[in-house]
Design a protein that fits this description.
With about 450 residues, this protein is mainly alpha-helical. It has two domains: about 10-160 and about 225-439, Growth Hormone, Chain: A, CATH 1.20.1250.20; about 165-215. The protein is built from 16 helices and no strands. The protein has helices spanning about 10-35, 40-60, 65-90, 95-125, 130-135, 135-150, 165-185, 190-215, 230-260, 265-270, 270-290, 295-310, 320-345, 355-385, 390-420, 430-439.
């Protein structure tokens, strides 16, 4: 049962963090590209890049080749992700947008449910390469469907050009932050190396902000954050990632390494949560269209906090029935918070800036997720001392896991307060409705 318990999560977190931050490095740029050159075009290009990279991943014969293909895969994901929400914003009028986003979120949850199961089955019964090969026919089908059913749209309101200074400064900041988070558990959070990297990240982000304030056509229009609803929704999305993404990662480690389940059983254990998200997300989106997102977001974050506290009571003697309440409440909370948060953020920006708004929202979620994995990793690593594979190391891992979940619950409660305090009805809805009806 204890043979795979990690003494330090560093090696397990490096891959997810680096992949996320590479996509974050490109995401705001790609959101800008989608607005400027066509959302369908950038979406289809992203699918082509991701599908090609998946094929290269499957054909990899060395770790270097696999890492390079994964970097390319991240670029494809960064192209696709902002374009999906901006296409929805450009296609549906505000009165229907929450419902459409709810269906989008439910479909994403369906993929989240199928992915671990299929991945586990492939890992146990076939070669690992097929985890990537399976993306190829799906990508080809997605390209054909996108060309047939999605209308092209773009921002026609202003001059379009590439913001190279903004791209460079944000890239340096994200690289420094990425490397610092990956290596923090190895060198220590207060070591000179790590503090230096965080300082470079802070300077890079400060330079990015100053540059964006002065650019005639910025990559990220910081005026968007003057809207309290947009700023609040993005803050809540970051805290959702910070509180929950680390939980998904470490729950998987806990279930496999402490309870002793297989990869397939672990993937299946998340089905109650993902099924609830699939069912509830469209309903939450529909209600956000009618009553607004504020109280749905606040209530959802409270439910997530309760779920995290339930998970924090798990130990080596736990079974599926101990997991189930946390999974059900967490699934309901995720559905109730994610769709209204997305609807609030996308509803508070002009349709012409939907690509940038989507990119910022997704970047916040991914940055929060990477930070969540790193913070939880630091807490777990501080307790999981001793020789890996021993009962002592396992007991330390469980203690660290429990404390990390308690911290995550406090973060979720903070998100509830921010949601209620900042999110309001979208003020430009009437104008947007008229534009859609006149089109």
């Amino acid at each position: 049962m204890y043979q795979n318990v990690p003494c330090s999560p560093k090696n397990r977190t490096a891959g997810p963090i680096s992949y996320r931050f590479w996509t974050d490095f490109l995401r705001n740029l790609c959101g800008r590209l989608a607005d400027a050159y066509g959302r369908r075009l950038i979406f289809v290009v992203g699918i082509v890049v991701f599908t090609t990279a998946s094929l290269l991943c499957g054909l990899s014969t060395s770790s270097e080749m696999l890492i390079g293909a994964r970097v390319l895969q991240g670029a494809g994901a960064a192209l696709m992700n902002p374009a999906t929400l901006s296409i929805i914003a450009a296609t549906f009028p505000p009165r229907e947008r929450g419902t459409a986003i709810g269906i989008w979120a439910g479909t994403s949850a369906l993929a989240l449910a199928i992915g671990p199961l299929v991945g586990g089955l492939i890992t146990e019964h076939a070669n690992w390469n097929w985890i990537f090969f399976i993306n190829v026919p799906i990508g080809v089908l997605a390209i054909l469907v996108a060309r047939l059913v999605i209308d092209e749209s773009r921002d026609m309101s202003a001059e379009q050009r590439l913001d190279l200074p903004g791209l460079l400064s944000s890239g340096i900041a994200l690289f420094a932050l990425t490397y610092g988070l990956i290596e923090a558990n190895t060198y220590g959070w207060t070591s000179t190396r790590i503090l230096g990297l965080f300082a470079v990240a802070a300077i890079g982000f400060a330079a990015f902000i100053l540059l964006e304030l002065r650019q005639r056509v910025p990559m990220l229009d910081l005026k968007l954050f003057k809207n309290g609803t947009f700023a609040g929704a993005n803050s809540v999305m970051l805290l959702v990632g910070l509180a929950m993404f680390g939980v998904f990662f470490y729950n998987s480690l806990f279930i496999q390494n402490i309870i002793g389940w297989s990869a397939v059983q672990t993937g299946a254990s998340f089905l109650p949560m993902t099924v609830l998200i699939i069912l509830i997300a469209p309903i939450a989106g529909k209600y956000s269209d009618r009553v607004g997102s504020r109280w749905l977001m606040g209530g959802g974050m409270v439910l997530l906090a309760i779920s995290l506290l339930i998970f924090s009571r798990l130990d080596a003697t736990s079974n599926f029935w101990d997991l189930l309440p946390g999974l059900l409440i967490g699934g309901l909370g995720m559905a109730v918070v994610m769709t209204p948060t997305t609807a609030a953020a996308m509803g508070s920006v002009p349709v012409d800036k939907a690509g940038v708004g989507s990119a910022v929202l997704n970047s916040g979620r991914q940055v929060g997720g990477a930070l969540g994995i790193a913070v939880m990793g630091a807490i777990v690593a501080s307790y999981a001392t001793g020789i890996p594979g021993t009962p002592e190391a396992a007991a330390g891992f469980v203690t660290g896991y429990q404390h990390a979940l308690q911290v995550a619950a406090l973060i979720a409660l903070a998100g509830a307060v921010i949601a209620v305090a900042t999110v309001r009805k979208y003020r430009h809805v009437e104008q947007s409705e008229a534009a859609f009806e006149g089109a």
